[in-house]
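Subgroup meeting minutes
Present: P.N., E.W., G.H.
Scribe: E.W.

1. P.N. recapped why we're keeping a running log of single-chain structure predictions: easier to compare across weeks, and new members can see raw inputs and outputs side by side.
2. G.H. added today's entry (449 aa).
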Amino acid sequence: MRRLSLSSRLALLFAACTAVVSLFAGVLFNRASEAHFIELDQQQLDGKLIGLRRALQAVQPGTGEARLADEMSRQADLSLRITGSDGQPWYDSSTHIPKELPQQPGLATLRQDGTDYRVLNAPLYPDKSDSPQLTLLLDITHHQHFLQRMQHLIWLTVGLSALATALLGAWAARSGLRPLRRMSAVARGISAQSLNARLPEGQMPPELAEMAHSFNAMLGRLDDSFQRLSAFSADIAHELRTPLSNLLTHTQVTLTRPRPIEDYREALHSNLEELQWMAQLVNDMLYLAKADHGLLMPKREALELADESDVLLEFFAPLAEDAGVTLSREGNAQIKGDRSMLRRALSNLLDNALRFTPAAGSVHLSIVDQPHAVQVSVENSGDGISAELLPRLFDRFYRADPARQEGSSEHAGLGLAITQSIVRAHGGEIHCESEAGWTRFVIELPKGK
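Output recorded in log:
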């Protein structure tokens, strides 16, 4: 069974609410009208009863029927029956009075031969137990016709109001849901070539403005991710093109003519270096792919960051000495983490700092033990990095140095991306700060994670 649309559901809901409210109001009005007519009839019959009692008490012998006929002739829709204390009829003012009438005292309603009556039973002499009974009958057929017409009008009003509300509700719901249809149209038109489409947030009602903002933010993230993925694919091809071209060219030149065994050995060694670099590049890309899918599971062992840093500083000391760069460290903290992964992250930062530190410069590693986290920073002197480049430093294959060297294992552009993946696998964050004369990479690792 096909499900109803939201517009149809709202229209039916509006129609049902209107029908219920109209019906309730109509029933209340009908009951109020009926109660009002009963009250009027009661007042009229009570007034007539008082008049009849006075007339009958003052009647002269032999003139009773004439006096009653005169009294009843003043109101054509009113009839009278007088019965004795034994229940036998004494007098009927009309031949159309039903034979069987209610006997209980007070007001009652009777329907006979298509005619409706309001019947009032009362004693002629209230202070006498054997008093004759007066029964007044008021023809209320016109009242009942009015109430019947009112009921028909109520049902007609309920039906028409429900129909009108359904139509207006459908129109209002369709108009109100127009932004959703626009959102659906934008979603249908989204493809890899049209991720720049956006919803006009300013034209959305307040209830949908937040959704439109989230939808646009999602499109922005998708667009940014797609652009990065496209750039990543291009960078992979760019990085692999040079070593593959070198391998092909070198191998073709080597095979152009017979050569001594030493020439072949030298060619193989040269090709081996290129292949090793390509293998390292593929391994780094697989490492980042694991990080993207949450497959990096660091070990949790107690580490003294000062000891781990000193091991790395000792390893880089010869390179720093050759470059005329001073290495230093201060601070210490304990943390639970993966030794090999954290060493790789710090090694990437130190290697990056040494490459961009001029002669007679310095590289300083600082460890700060904070209440809820450990902060590790690697700072080096030298030319700063412009603010617009800082957000892209951790992109894969991105190089802030415009003098890009293709196919160089030292400048593959994956070191900072790997460092960020390692830090995030430990539940931390990394960012870069730079001004003229210095650059600092700051790692914040939470304790107990």
